[in-house]
Amino acid sequence: MSEWWAIPMLLSGSLFAGGVVSIAWERIPAWREASLTGFRTAFGHTLRRVDRLQPMLLVLWLVSTIGFAITAGGAAGAAAVVAAAGLLVVLVGSAAWLVPVQGRLVSRELPSPEAERLRSQWLRGHVIRTVLALAALALIVVAAVS
Amino acid sequence: MSGALRLATIVMLAAGGVFTGGVVWYAWERVWIWRRLALREYAVDFRRSVRKADPALPILLVTCGTAAGAFALLTGGTARTLAICGIGLLATILVSSIVLAEPINSQFRRRAEGVVPPDAERLRRRWRRFHLVRTAMAAFAFALLVTAVSYA
Questions:
Q1: Of A34, A58, A100, B11, whose CB is crowded by the most CB atoms within 10 A?
Q2: Half-sphere exposure at residue A15, Cβ-oriented, CA atoms within 13 angstroms
Q3: Which helix (H) or strand (E) holds B41?
Q4: Chain A residues lying within 8 Å of B16, measured CB to CB
Q5: CA B152/CA B140 separation, integer angstroms
């Protein structure tokens, strides 16, 4: 029964984690070097695309991981529970912290020091989210082969 | 599941997962944005992006393919068949990337930043089409490998 949860868990988890890793690896260095105006324009473009897909993948990943944890039991179930807790932190942290920062960065005329502070905050938050997503991916992979 | 098979499976799924997520992200986000940029902006962004992605994605692809080879050797039946099909797709992605995408990448990489290669619009269109096909193959290959694990 747990295999039915393992397949969507691994697929959605990989797509989500690969997406946030790509942003951290490819976009963040470019955004750090960009001027504030250039950053806010490019950031807005990325948000328009990523916000349509990543939250859906994260929710799918979380639900399938919970389903896997319930049906697997034992060490595999325990690893999945820890992964699900990490994903919940990513979900709540993104909604409560990063989404409001994104909204302010793209929708308002901000004074430069404030925009600079928000850029640093978002980039830091995204790196934390990436580390958590990678740890959760490692845990679900281990859980799936246990 | 033996220790060696477990290790091969973990490496295959972890490397393959991040690789697949990465190419899907390019197809979903970068390709969509690049299509809308002026050629000079595109040349700058594409060149920078390729410099970041080039060492990482091929390493993940080869790591996944090698681990999938070990997985196929250590299993049998349906799991092995599915893994071999996945490896075939990964090999096709690797070879076609070297033969088709790399010459386009180098057209941008070998020039100074902001210099637009001749026929850049055609190169952009060709790279985009190639990447969308590569993404579909990567997603299918990873789905095959994940399904193979459920049979192991």
A1: A58
A2: 28
A3: helix B39-74
A4: 14
A5: 19
Q: Which of B91, B68, B63 is nearest to B80 (CA)?
A: B68
Residue A1 scores a pLDDT above 80: no
Q: Which residues of B touch A141 (CB under 8 A)?
A: 9-10, 13-14, 17
Contacts of A3 (CB under 8 A, 6+ apart): B150
Gap between the Cα atoms of A92 and A30, Å rounded: 27
What single-letter amino acid sits at B65?
Answer: G
The tokens for A108 are 């308002």
Give Cα separations from B30 to A22, B65, B107 (angstroms): 10, 25, 18
Interface test with A, best of B2, B9, B29, B47 (most A CBs within 10 A): B29
